[in-house]
Design brief:
single chain; mainly alpha; 4 helices; 84% helix; elongated
Length: 99
């Protein structure tokens, strides 16, 4: 393959990474601001309960994403060839984030 044929594929990967990475950064800074000592002051028990709820919700979301990603891989494998699946950058980015 020539170098010019890789440019659209590389561009799709960059857009995919930016699409998933930018909301993560925004969420990280939002939670770090809210959970800082200057904004909220709580006792240890309520912080423990909140962290437990966050971990449970994150585990549920990860389970849903993994399940849906595996279903998408299974449907793609039955419908498309291996070359098409290799070019699905969003799917591979999601699978890399999950594992």
């Amino acid at each position: 393959m020539k170098i010019n044929e890789y440019k659209p594929l590389f561009k799709n990967w960059l857009y995919g990474i930016a699409f998933y990475f930018i909301p993560f950064i925004i969420g990280y800074f939002a939670f770090s601001f809210v959970l800082s000592n200057s904004v909220l002051h709580t006792d240890a028990d309520s912080a423990r309960y909140m962290l437990s709820a966050l971990v449970q919700s994150e585990a549920a979301i990860v389970a849903l994403v993994v399940t849906l990603s595996l279903v998408a891989v299974q449907l793609a494998a039955s419908s498309y060839s291996a070359r098409v699946i290799e070019r699905m950058s969003d799917l591979w980015i999601l699978m890399g984030i999950n594992f």
